[in-house]
């Protein structure tokens, strides 16, 4: 009998599919969080594979901050339509009313739009399991995160009270009001994600590829002036060939100068660069254990 | 010198060639185990560092942290790279399983980093459950320790076939070959005694970097592979598993429309081709594979580890939890097993209590008998045990409420490994490894009798029923039960009263008042009550029955609608003030152990059919209320 050793990407793909199928059979109301980034793109692609020829049996949920790049909104709507899935968009009405924005409100922006917005959306629709695209290689406190991460009725994550996870046997049982966050890409690395996008020809936001874009440099981050809400403090936007390694709210996401216009070039650049992915995000710079603290409060 | 990571040139010159290499990499999952100061975190930190998985910004943080809280003076403390959670940093120890990633030109590696402390057996078992290989770290100055034995036993128990004995801190013993040889000999003697047939010993220094990625000049006497070399070439369990008979537990039935019916799952063993003959268990029905469906086009074949969807030629029943196997090599089906059980919860195992047992995608109700023995994981001795507490490992019989398809754990982790879930809290409280099925269950068949339970009941002209009274000692259960029986007798109803104290003089005289004994007490009473309802009787019971799980267990034993839970609700102060039998006084004086309400909990019913508040209701009124509910 011949042997067909699976490659690491084939094993990662099978693992993610297995996880998704466990969730739809164990949860009452699953949902997939969709942030339009590259990890979300891979997750959505895997969901299509997991349930084919059925469409994925859950909706997509975008917790919107209203401050994403314009290219992201365009791809979001197109990708959901192509997958045959319902797209739910939630914008925290309190944050909207108070005009919370990344320029004036710092950490409160993430807290209100993302952390609170996510909790509101999950409660509003009664979702009891939410897929997220987080990976263990992103940050130290993530390295210990379970694939099925248990959250209390108030959405809190207690690192001391997580269930042991053995083999590929996942326990998604919970009492009313409690929920699970599920991370099918836990064991993928940034390189795996890029390689998979390349191999499977997955559409991603054009901002990942280098192009001439208007930029200003502020607090050490190179920011793109994506629309006229960007308050210029006497700065003149400069056209630079830039791209993004990670995408979030445009005023909080740092770009890198680059000429990489194809996926292999992007991967090449990534492999030869010497700074980690999350450095482009302002959120992690607060304090050493900041991600862990945000998670306990319910941030994804 | 190092060839392993010489990829930068290739990346810069020919990214497509590099991607092609990377695409064809295989994956090895391994676990590192060692005691607190054996240098485990340092070793992993070193592997990440040497494989360039650390970026400049992380390195800057690392350097700053090393100076601030490190243990290596001004040098880099690699351990800080992997000690993640804030709580751990404060305590200076790793307290959970963390997963790390690095890759070489041949393989991608996932490392489960598990703590060395005794109380964290649970974490090591978790990490070992998905590992192909274990690296057992030993401090060359200390030799084989109790922890070394424990880690090796656990790795072997969880079915890890590849063991590496990494004798660390060789720099601190002058790279002395005699020290290394002595430790290896000592370890070999122990390993053989627990059935480990093979292991790979390597002398290393995590701190100095000897024999980790590159061969050390300090150990010219060592001819074996260096650590990373070995990790790159060791045979993967996954490849071996493809040569076994085909098995796939069904996760999900894929039914987008009336024309398509597929069965989705991850192949646990073997290979499958279109046209292969298959069998579905437990039903035993057979068919052929008509299609192996995948996004992007049907497949001709699929192998262990792949997540696929199968279609059959015939319309046979198949649902989640059932197992598709090669037609000529089915798995066994049984409802009683012997298994190793690893307890993972603060609340100890209660033998006889019903837990959820999840094996692959199937979840059934199951009970664990009193353990045959507990294993002392330090000495491998077998100890007598009544229960298992956190981190204890024992062997016990398990009974499930229906037949399940399975294999021995030694044959398949997917089909022989299960978790136990507490029905109230939903926590994962234990893990089990099936040894074999007990034949008993298959050989004792149910004896059909001619006079049915319906016949018994109609002769008595009544509907059988269990009136289950629960409440604290002294709440008035026996008094009310007795009144109910007298009144029913006057109404020509056939009844029987099972009283807690009376049953303990005979049927249950061998039982005490520990949690496990209380559960067994209630189980037996439930079985007796069930026989009596089969005989057509109205059974009245008066037991404290303090735990919700056991009351639910008894409810589940009865026919639907034949169990009425009656909560005799008397506050503790009130029951204690009455103290009819003087028991509360004794308990308060410490003369009675495990007394409900004092040093043993009472879990009040959440939704009893009847609740009697004895501070507002007389026993007469209570009895009338109950009878009104029984005979409307």
TrEMBL record, chain A:
Ranges where the Phosphoadenosine phosphosulphate reductase domain occurs: 30-254
Gene Ontology MF annotations: ATP binding; sulfate adenylyltransferase (ATP) activity
Family in the record: Belongs to the PAPS reductase family. CysD subfamily.
Name of the protein in question: Sulfate adenylyltransferase subunit 2
Biological processes per GO annotation: hydrogen sulfide biosynthetic process; sulfate assimilation
Function: With CysN forms the ATP sulfurylase (ATPS) that catalyzes the adenylation of sulfate producing adenosine 5'-phosphosulfate (APS) and diphosphate, the first enzymatic step in sulfur assimilation pathway. APS synthesis involves the formation of a high-energy phosphoric-sulfuric acid anhydride bond driven by GTP hydrolysis by CysN coupled to ATP hydrolysis by CysD.
NCBIfam families per UniProt: CysD (TIGR02039), PRK05253.1 (NF003587), PRK12563.1 (NF009214)
Organism (species): Roseinatronobacter thiooxidans
EC number, as in UniProt: 2.7.7.4
Recorded catalytic activity of this chain's protein: sulfate + ATP + H(+) = adenosine 5'-phosphosulfate + diphosphate
From TrEMBL, chain B:
Any one GO BP annotation for this protein: sulfate assimilation
Binding residues annotated for ATP, in chain numbering: 471-478
EC number: 2.7.7.4, 2.7.1.25
Root EC class: transferase
Pathway entry: Sulfur metabolism; hydrogen sulfide biosynthesis; sulfite from sulfate: step 2/3; Sulfur metabolism; hydrogen sulfide biosynthesis; sulfite from sulfate: step 1/3
Catalytic activity reported: sulfate + ATP + H(+) = adenosine 5'-phosphosulfate + diphosphate; adenosine 5'-phosphosulfate + ATP = 3'-phosphoadenylyl sulfate + ADP + H(+)
Keyword check for GTP-binding: yes
Binding site for GTP: 34-41, 113-117, 168-171
GO molecular function, one term: sulfate adenylyltransferase (ATP) activity
Keywords linked to the UniProt accession: ATP-binding, GTP-binding, Kinase, Multifunctional enzyme, Nucleotide-binding, Nucleotidyltransferase, Phosphoprotein, Transferase
Function: Proposed to provide activated sulfate for transfer to Nod factor. ATP sulfurylase may be the GTPase, regulating ATP sulfurylase activity.
HAMAP family for the chain: Adenylyl_sulf_kinase (MF_00065), Sulf_adenylyltr_sub1 (MF_00062)
Assembly information from the UniProt record: Heterodimer composed of CysD, the smaller subunit, and CysN. Sulfate-activating enzymes, NodP and NodQ, may be physically associated.
Protein known as: Multifunctional fusion protein
Originating species: Roseinatronobacter thiooxidans
